[in-house]
Each structure stands twice: as C-alpha cells, then as structure tokens.
Amino acid sequence: MMKNVNATCKYAELMEELQQKIDALKDGADCFFGKDPDDVNWADVGSAAHLLELINEASRFMGLNIKED
User: Where are the domains of the chain?
Assistant: First the structure.
C-alpha cells in the first residue's frame, strides 16, 4: 500500500498538466508559434532564445542531461 496516496495522486495530476503543456509547446514550435516565417524579426529571435533558456533551466532542475548548444 502506498504511504503517500495524496502526494502520489497530486504528482500524477501535475505530470498530466505538464505533459499537456509540453505537447502545446511542441505543437507551437512545429508551426513557428503562429509566426509567418517571412515576418520573423529580432524580437522574435530574442523571445525564442529566452524560451529555450527557460526550457534548459527546467531540464537542469529535473536532472535531465540534454545537450545545450
């Protein structure tokens, strides 16, 4: 029997929410987050770099060994 049923249930809920957000990010990235490639500017590049920085930080926080450029 699990000792921390409430914690396990909450963790499973959070993992589901996390997976939904990861899927949404992937879908967005697959289509330039709705940007027309001809309209991309340096502000968009900065936003993409910032997003990548946040994802790298989250990956390190979770102990994932994802190669960073």
Answer: 1-30, 36-69
